[in-house]
Amino acid sequence: VQLQAFGGGLVQAGGSLRLSCEASARTASIYTVAWFRQAPGKEREFVATISWNGEIIYTSYADFAKGRFTISGDTAKNTVSLQMDSLEPEDTADYSCAASRTRYIGKVSANDMAYWGKGTLVTVSS
How far is it, in rounded angstroms, from Cα 61 to Cα 70? Predict the structure, then answer.
């Protein structure tokens, strides 16, 4: 599975960005997709995850993302999006998407993810 994240850029504080993670074909066995971020000089941290169990969709967010970020998926387009609103300078980071063939419900760690895409840089100016 190959993943590609895009949609990053420069935005002012309070603004919004929508990141997208596109997967290569044959993703029927992917059950969990997550977003992580890594700010300069800091460790990578979990942002949000989405998982599927038939028609049931589960989502989970890091505390800093709750109420501001929304993760969604379009299985027909093999795409998972991360809508980020009310952005703050502290959200500046390289954002990466990752996937797993295991269905995780709730927060995940980087070690849980088997497939990774190259990140997209988000810069929030004050």
Answer: 8
Strand, helix or coil for residue 76: helix
Closest CA to 96 of 9, 8, 26: 8
CA distances from 10 to 71, 91, 116, 119, 121 (A): 20, 11, 23, 15, 8
* pLDDT at site 76: 80
pLDDT of residue 43: 97
Q: How far apart are CA 125 and CA 123, in angstroms?
A: 6
Least Cα distance to 47 among 32, 58, 63, 31 occurs for 63
Selection from 2, 7, 1 nearest residue 95 by Cα: 7
90 φ, ψ to 5°?
-70, -10
- 47-105 pLDDT tens trace: 999 998 888 999 999 999 999 999 999 888 889 999 999 999 999 999 999 999 999 99
Question: 64-99: buried (b, 16+ CB within 10 Å) or exposed (e) per residue?
Answer: ebeeebebebeeeebbbbbbbeebeeebbbbbbbbb
